[in-house]
Amino acid sequence: MYLSTDNFIENFNKFPIYLIFGEEEFLIEESLNSIINSIYLRNDNFDLDILDGENSTLNEILQIAQNYPFTGSQRTLIVKKFDKLIPSKISKKNNEFNKFIEYINNPAGFTNLILVANIDKLKDLKKNIRNNQLNETGLNKLKDVKTPFDIIIKNYYWNEFPKLYESEYPNWIIERFKKEGKYISSDAVQYLAIQCGNSLRELSQEIEKLCIYKNDSTEILLNDVLNVAGSNKEYNVFELQKAIAERNLNKSILILNKLLDSDSQEMLIITVISKFMINAWKFMDLKNIISDENVLAKEMNMQKWQLKDYLLISNNYKIEEIEQAIINITDIDFKLKSGISNKIALFQNLFFEILIKN
What we know:
Rossmann fold, 3 domains, 5-stranded parallel β-sheet, about 55% helix, elongated
């Protein structure tokens, strides 16, 4: 049965085996920390053991899991990288493995066994649950999964932390702030998502800092994010994107120089304008066949308010110019990574090439 971390924590003594897997290591780590902290808060006397599959054996796990706890009535055993302990080929003569399967089929009532694993063949299993149970597609997926993972999924409790894609970051940020009882504005969400790249760990740290910074307020605005990030309210990547969309060369160069002087955020600038141009190319192509902005936003996997700069750029550029801009950005990205020192000149030449009409 699928079981979220919060639901597991509520009555963890009832769940003898809990499997955690997925691609988002930070979220798995966070889930484990929540479980451990909960155990510390709820119990004065408890047995907690943490093993690593790369440095342990199935026999060690069994020995701990089957021993009655010393200090309380319940034992919690966490095994990280549990998949490393499962043989690639399972033999009937493997007594260690067979004994572990016997335990899985009849676990000790006083032990909570929490297994953390990387299981490629269970990728996106979470998408196949209905009312906390696997649907037919999910059950079919288990046919190709090694024992004991199939047994655990069918008979016990599990949680998956699948890869979070870039398009999902804004909702993830919003939900994080909701848990803290705070509202974050749309532009602040967008800036955070861009600023932290593809790192959930870094995003979480920024969210934590913002919650401390705005401890007495329930609202997080773009200015708050800029203050915490140490960025200028007038000269930031959002304003740079807008200036490019407006085809305002002077303003673009001014913001560019301010960014490079204060923060040296070359790769952030490249990431933002590269993504902006690629999305602009897609937007301009879609705009030829779709006039409804709500439909356009859906096709772009964006909110309607995010289309503002794309409407601007589509009015000020030809699609051929956007295509050439993407080529030029790719070229400067390569040069930056190659260690070229005169970065300001590189960027200024790039902006001249993009914004000056031929």
